[in-house]
Structures
1.
Amino acid sequence: MSRMITVHLRYEIDADKIAEFREYGRRWIRLVDRLGGTHHGYFLPSEGDSDEAFALFTFPSLADYERYRLASTDDPECVEAYRYAVETKCIRRYERRFLAPVFE
């Protein structure tokens, strides 16, 4: 039995480039959904730390996530979204965690 997996990303972003990071997030929400996942959104700074953002997305299984990762390396829109982040330097670093979600 495969278990659903949620990916939690914690980003350290450039606080002066929140608009660029927002655009990066908008691109990836659609791409994750198109490549088999369910994106739960990006969460930008509001109060508190101004350089920390988060994202959550779920795949039916770890194997599905791995297929997404592989597909995203060759997908032109994914490559372009990654290039955008590199060029704008809106992301300083990120951490990825895998979680087992509990839904009703």
2.
Amino acid sequence: MDIDPARRNKKPRLLLETEREKLDEFVDSIHYSARYNDDKFEYRHVQLPKNMLKKIPADYFDSAKGTLKLLWEEEWRALGITQSLGWEHYEVHEPEPHILLFKRPLNYQPPLQQ
């Protein structure tokens, strides 16, 4: 379940302040699932308000699929998604493109800061 680099921007595309302001009204309506896991990863899904997708810049979307690209951490955090460290956006639920799927290794420990 590796991340396909072709489904991401080559490098994080940060939001302009004006773009971020358009998303602020939706942040409190973002829904976070409970965590669930298999033997390697823990998972969660994040449900964005459907109307929020209309305010996200076009270059965050995969034009071939009509869904969001796989987002770098800087990108999903800029959208207003808040999670602890270590989460990686690995898939978009195509039938419901406002649902983003995240994973991180089981028992993830953030690196120690020095």
3.
Amino acid sequence: MAEVTYKRGDADNRPWGRWEVLDTGEGFAVKRITVNPGAILSLQLHHHRSEHWTIVAGKARVTRGEEKLDLGFGQHVHLPVETAHRIENIGDTPVIFIEVQYGEKLDENDIVRLEDKYGRAPA
């Protein structure tokens, strides 16, 4: 049985923007994530979940492993378990994307930060 610790309505402000949980169910969670202009999330990976991101506003640069992908409205990317990834806002307006997480364990503790502009990665 999957462990999902997120609840609908959970939200958090981060140095790069904000996330909020839109829905959860058996083995999945759906978040709306807003990335401020010029901001970038940590380069990270997850041991217990995959993610699928769909851009709904703005212009983003996504790192997936060794790839760099420039994405805009309606474009999407799949991020497998254990794959290093990040998103950066390369435009003048907020990037908004929908993140669907799925896996056996869905919570904020399954974030392994590899690099972080805001000092949250291990030294």
4.
Amino acid sequence: MARVVVDVMLKPEILDPQGKAVQGALPRLGFDGVLDVRQGKRFELEVEGEVTAERLAEIEKIAETLLANPVIEDFTVHVEDAS
């Protein structure tokens, strides 16, 4: 069994109101020096067996079809260290 992680983020040109809300709250809470905040999503998929190139391609298709909206979001797929 292996864990594959899909990180989804809004494309840089897309406004991120949640990120801006967090950024605005930080100084009020006493946290200074944060110049920007972008909010995203993380999906962890537990898969059977070894993660092959074919399996990664299938997971990328899952991300493109279901987990991310490719019009406004970018995603990355990586295998997380099992240790």
